[in-house]
């Protein structure tokens, strides 16, 4: 029986929501790159929760996550399976998911689809705060050092070579007129040797002509005497988020439920945070946590800010007092 996991990301009228459909015995939800549902948010643990088949049903299990797994308003005790149904809303860290059991074919090429989902979530978050997400090819060595080629269009083949008609024309006499083609497909950078005279080297390995090869930073490409570097801001941010330690959520980080359910902790006591209950006017069509466009996707890692505490204020006040006393003493001595 297949199960679909929908990432609820947008507020207002609901656009098409990112989703993945699985038809296997276990689905891992987490921040790590080995997860089946890969959620690049530090509030989500590397291996946060799993969905497991139980006959014709699915059970959800918290895998000892830092911030817990919630079904509706109830937090699951670690390693205690709970049967889930179509329409259930699940929160892992800051991220809301919606489950649907049956009625859909499994997503083809799940490995690529999982990466695309994580890549898209990070890119939208970076776009929302004005960060440049465009991948670039930069000349790191050679006559044209410092020149850049922006890979702005998905699927387009960008040509690099000696010809003036190339997207990145080079002054390197050891390059062919059209030496190499570079394209973005599914968030990945592919390169191809266009039958060049002196070949294309990815790191120390020469690639075969007329065949697409995956190019990942920080490996560099050499054509003639020119060395090309790849700058991928989204991939770099994704890798940094996945490598980060779990971020323990504060009460104000908890997103409201889209259906206004009250949150209950493991012991069954009612949580009192006002942000955990959606306004009555929003129930039924309420927005969910804006994972894909919320700067909370990049907290304390890509844009860390200093937060002043009462201790900080006390230290500053005492320091100013000491300085004032020292100045007064100096004036008295001079007189």
Commentary on this structure:
The chain is an alpha+beta fold and 335 residues long. 16% of the residues lie in helices and 27% in strands. It contains 3 helices and 22 strands. It has helices spanning 110-128, 233-243, 310-334; strands at residues 3-7, 19-22, 26-30, 37-38, 49-54, 57-62, 69-71, 74-75, 82-84, 89-92, 95-101, 135-141, 148-151, 158-161, 168-169, 180-185, 188-193, 201-202, 205-206, 213-215, 221-223, 226-231. Strand 10 and strand 11 (95-101) form a beta hairpin. The longest helix has 25 residues, at 310-334. The chain is elongated and about 65 Å long. The termini are far apart.
Give the key terms.
single chain, alpha+beta, 335 residues, 22 strands, six-stranded antiparallel sheet, 3 helices, 27% strand
Short description:
This protein is an alpha+beta fold. The protein has helices at about 110-130, 235-245, 310-335; strands spanning about 5, 20, 25-30, 35-40, 50-55, 55-60, 70, 75, 80-85, 90, 95-100, 135-140, 150, 160, 170, 180-185, 190-195, 200, 205, 215, 220-225, 225-230.
Q: Name the average pLDDT.
A: 80
Shape: elongated
Order of helices and strands: EEEEEEEEEEEHEEEEEEEEEEEHH
User: How are the strands of the largest sheet arranged?
Assistant: 2-1-11-10-7-8
Strand content: 25-35%
Q: Roughly how much helix do the residues carry, as a percent range?
A: 10-25%
**Uncertain regions: pLDDT < 50 for 5+ in a row?**
10-14, 261-297, 303-311
- How many helix segments? 3
Query: In terms of quaternary structure, what is this?
Result: single chain
Radius of gyration: 26 Å
Secondary structure tally: strands? 22
What distance separates the N and C termini? 91 Å
Largest sheet: 6 strands, antiparallel
